Amino acid sequence: MLASPSSLLLEHERRRRHRLRLPLSEFVPSVSPTLVAPVHLAPLVNLFERVAAGEEVRAVVSTPPQHGKSVTALHALCWLLARDPTRRHAYATYAQQFARDQNTIARPIAQRAGIRLTDVSADRWRTSEGGRIAWTGVGGPLTGQAIDGLLLADDLLKNRQEAESATHRDRIMGWLYGVGLTRVHPGGSVILIATRWHPRDPSGQLIEAGWEEVNLPAVNDADEALWPDARPREWLEQRKAELSEYDWWSLYMGRPRPRGGAVFKGAHLYDDLPDGGYQEAHGFDAAYSTHTRSDYSVTLTGRKHGDTLYVTRMIRDQLEARHYLAKLQAVGVKRVAWYRGGTEKGLEAMLEQNGIRVRSLPVSGGDKFVRAQHTAQTWNDGRILLPKNEPWVEEFLDEMLAFTGTTADRHDDIVDALAALHDDMFNKDYTDIPTAERAYI
User: Fold this and answer.
1) Model-level pTM greater than 0.90?
2) Helix axes 69-83, 42-52, angle to 10 degrees
3) Measured by CB atoms within 10 angstroms of the end CB, which terminus of the chain is less buried, N or C?
4) Mean pLDDT over residues 19-31, rounded?
């Protein structure tokens, strides 16, 4: 016998009410059966439980990438609105479009949870009881959007480039204090969930201001993985091997390290170059003048055998461009990789006019310190080697081992030239280079 429409409606309502009584960890797999209960994020889940209980929460949470924090947060917003459809919440992230994308992901969750929405748009949900969720990006408006529930700030910084910029950090904090927090009513809560990028990122500043801190590192003090079933220790070790130490401690451990410590550690030397085929390239960094206090122009030549880079020559001098160019031509340099700034297009044109092709690498990823991180990982793994008996090696190591990424560094031209050489060799498709210039032997 088929169930009657009225009995089906009653059963649907019974299930809906049952879900509303579930704790958040059980609510997640109840409305999204493909997911498991986020027990590994129990401290984060507990914050949402406290908000639901009426506590006024001010907390900062850091979790590693790909550990389910955003999907858990979206379920939590729906869970809070389902339990009390009169409450008003907001979701904020680094850009309006990304907020709308998250809105789209959350809508099926709300439908499965049985939330009755009377108004649904890209930027706002409303219930017939007066509750709502506003979806916004940093810089977007929250005018008239009172928040007596939860302001959930999810990754207000998009990437390291933004985090390394003091101007951008100030912009984020200005929006948070001047717009976001001004909409929160007494009794309302604020939870910032973020990947840590920098000691002075919004998370760091709010922790300094006394906000509660919840840090869930990928690996705890007992050397155990945070989410062993889905992100086991072996998988984390692979991620760690792929990242610089700076990125690992920031992204996966929630403990961003300040600049000032040694970036390149130790030195690895070779007696003779290995036999067999190799790729050869040149990394370049330019000085602006011949003044003795200016940086040097540097060109580093290297050969890549397998996953190891052998630096074979350094040309470093404080010369006018035409004289330095003559040095490069004298040793047959026909192509260089260069992290070229916007003011150096004229010098690039001069190189090209004199038969030296330039691969201009994008500088949008940050300053010299940020650019050096992937090179430092390869260096610290012992896969960048220097010749034992070349006179320039001492000068090379003096700068590399003293590099900290701060204004205290006397010179950093060798660091940038090595980063260009490294990234040209390890992070590029050689198909864009004429065969005659690939230096395959």
Assistant:
1) no
2) 20
3) N
4) 90
